[in-house]
Amino acid sequence: MTVEACALMYHDVVADGDEDRSGFPGRDAALYKVSAARFDAHVAAVADGWSRRLAEHMTAHPALRSSSAQPPRPVFTFDDGGVSAMEAAAILEQRGFLGHFFITTNYVGTRGFLDARQLRELRARGHVVGSHSCSHPLRMARCPWPQLVAEWTQSRRALEDILGCAVRTASVPGGDFAAPVADAAARAGITTLFTSEPTRTLRRAFGIDVRGRFTIQRWTTTETVRGLANGAWLPRARQAVVWNAKKVTKRIGGDRYLKLRQLLIGHGDEVQWGDTIMRE
């Protein structure tokens, strides 16, 4: 196992009160949508921290000043494929960053989601475009094996048809990771799989790289993002506590977890999640 640069998991960048404009609608999805002003502040803080680490690195290793060696940049990732990816990409580019955009391919071109032209534009601008499955199962680890393989294989094929190039990266929807999810991704040709586990440790499973990410929600402060990107202990520990608590709840709750989740927060009647498709 090796330690990688911090990977931050975003979803949509939208104005307050306009959360349903981009990505999946509903109260659940809105928890992970940040305003453009907040996102810009996050990126600025990460860029400033990275620049400081780069300067310190070059001071400590003057022989490397003329080489390409430098500390790894934090990684900005975006799940679901909401149309606000275009605004997020522009903000990243202004600070010298590129993003990883993971697409739920069943929704390409539908209301609130990127269309094929926009996906090609993102790719042409240097951003990474990867798979977020076809249907976005809320509990992907509980999908039958044939569906797991189909979710990765079909979504990857759809993106390659749109982009005209190989697609090798993906992220797990719903934060529900298990060994069969990685196994199916590997069989589908994925080589790097991002999870929602709050860690910088890179693991190898079934011949592919498995990378964790730190979750950003609508109330996440700039100082928290700065700390995560800089490797601060406290914000990482807080996310680990929440992550482990949710794992236990999902494992104990089973199908009741999904029913309670929908009852408490909802996600929009027009959304047909992969879990629903799996049971039909």
Describe, in plain words, how this protein is organized in 3D.
By secondary structure, the protein is of the alpha/beta class. It has one domain (2-279): Glycoside hydrolase/deacetylase (TIM Barrel, Alpha-Beta Barrel). 44% of the residues lie in helices and 14% in strands. The strands form 3 sheets. The protein has a 5-stranded mixed sheet. α2 (36-60) packs parallel to α3, α7 (222-230) packs across α8 and α8 crosses α9 (255-265). The chain is globular. The mean pLDDT is 88.
Neighbour order of strands in the largest sheet: 1-10-11-9-8
Radius of gyration: 18 Å
For this structure, what is the CATH class?
Answer: Alpha Beta
Strand-pairing-aware structural class: alpha/beta
The total number of structural domains is 1
Total helices: the number is 10
Helix content class: 40-55%
Measured distance between first and last alpha carbons: 40 Å
Overall pLDDT score: 88
SSE string, helices as H and strands as E: EEEHEHEHEHEHEHEEEEHHHH
- Structure summary, number of beta strands: 12
Write the CATH architecture name: Alpha-Beta Barrel
State the fourth-level CATH superfamily. Answer: Glycoside hydrolase/deacetylase
**Poorly predicted parts:** none
CATH topology: TIM Barrel
Shape: globular
Main beta-sheet annotation: 5 strands, mixed
Percentage beta strand: 5-15%
Can you lay out the helices and strands and say which pair or pack?
Blueprint: E1 2-3, E2 7-10, E3 12-13, H1 27-30, E4 33-34, H2 36-60, E5 75-78, H3 85-94, E6 99-103, H4 116-124, E7 128-131, H5 145-163, E8 169-171, H6 179-187, E9 192-194, E10 201-205, E11 208-211, E12 214-215, H7 222-230, H8 233-253, H9 255-265, H10 274-279
Parallel strand pairs: 2-5, 2-12, 3-4, 5-6, 6-7, 8-9, 9-11
Antiparallel strand pairs: 1-10, 10-11
